[in-house]
Specification:
mainly beta, OB fold (Dihydrolipoamide Acetyltransferase, E2P), single chain
């Protein structure tokens, strides 16, 4: 089997809310923001994420998007 990298859990701050439950998030220690989407349980239980909220994100090992897994 192919070894897959474990996703990294990183803290960040929501900078902008985009359409379709997407968010622009600036990660700790990085200047450039990434696009993140809500995890399934956050959608299911309708947990609101607003601009300025601190969140935990699982980053995709292949780059691109991240998944918001927790609102702090």
């Amino acid at each position: 089997m192919v070894n897959q990298q474990e996703p990294q859990e990183i803290k960040g701050i929501v900078e902008e809310a985009l359409p379709n439950a997407l968010f622009r998030v600036t990660l700790e220690g990085q200047d450039e923001p990434i696009i993140a989407y809500l995890s399934g349980k956050m959608r299911k239980f309708r947990i609101k994420v607003l601009v300025g909220d601190k969140v935990n994100i699982l980053t995709d090992p292949y780059g691109g998007k991240g998944r918001i897994i927790k609102r702090l």
